[in-house]
Amino acid sequence: MPDSQAGTADAASAIFAALDELREQFGGRFALAHSEQALREENAKILGGKGELTAILKGVGAAPAERRKAIGERANLLKQEVEKAFDERLRALAQEKRAADLHARPFDLTLPGRPLAPLGHKHPISIVREEIVDIFQSLGFALHDGPEVELEENNFTKLGFPPDHPATDMQDSFWTTSGHLLRTHTSNVQIRAMSTHRPPMAFIAPGAVYRRDNDVTHSPMFHQVEGFLVDENVTFADLKGVLTEFCQRLYGEGTPVRFRPSYFPFTEPSAEVDIGCVFCKGDAAKQAACAMCKRTGWIEILGSGMIHPVVLEACGIDAEKYTGFAFGIGVERVAFLRYGVPDIRMFFENDPRLLAQF
Ligand code: DAH
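^ thats the input. predicted complex w/ 3,4-dihydroxyphenylalanine below
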């Protein structure tokens, strides 16, 4: 069948011609690919399952059997050449990119930085608390911590509160179902510290306290700073000296200070400390109309006293040998006098319009 034989010979020549043509081309096509992706696409067009080489080899069945081996060999050779060229071009592209990166303009370090999001700042209660603590630390008092959920014994009993004292009532304090309570004052730290330390000692204990109160001047959660000092021969004069110095430092040199008799179950004698009203400042005409000091010219700022011997003994301290003084400061009250925030609850509403002002 000369016809069909001629046909198959033609088919074989056509395949060789097509392979030759592809061989001529592929180098130039790879060279035109300027990115890795373009190169991979070009490579797939040639060697991929639906690529040009596969398409050419589809015609191999039409070639005479004795030429098929030669076609296969030529095709394999071409495939190897294409693969080699592809790898080389890939490497060259990577090098080009690296060289371009190295020669690119470096980061401009003179550009201004991006502004950070506003950082916020300390809460006014924290500002005042830290100021109070700083003053006492500079006088030699050390920080002491205590729990906010407390035993009745440390919050009341050992501090000399009789069992029927109104403060121990459900109406006045927050009790847990397990019979503990949220401490109503930081005086619990006195009991804890005096039970675990031996005199001499001088501690300052800031923290949150809780009472069932909620009005313009009372918040159910507020803050106190407790302080106490125990040693041999501590007298009321020491109490006066330390607290007068504290008031001068907090409210300014020359601030009038007075000690007024008072009562606390855990101190004897006890004294409330007043400073000259920071609003009317002793001006008789202003004082006559001053609501802040209720026209007295004085503002109460803390409670204090000589630690009751019964309290010392409850903590295992020999009350014949040692004496001590203690005081408790309301942090919100100090902040109120400093900043004139009209409602104590505003401190805890977390309204940024208020808090941003401090
Ligand atoms: N614990 C008292 C209160 O919450 C404040 C206080 C008064 C503490 C006198 C003291 C003190 O240590 O000596 O009202």
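The first strand starts at residue 142 and ends at 143.
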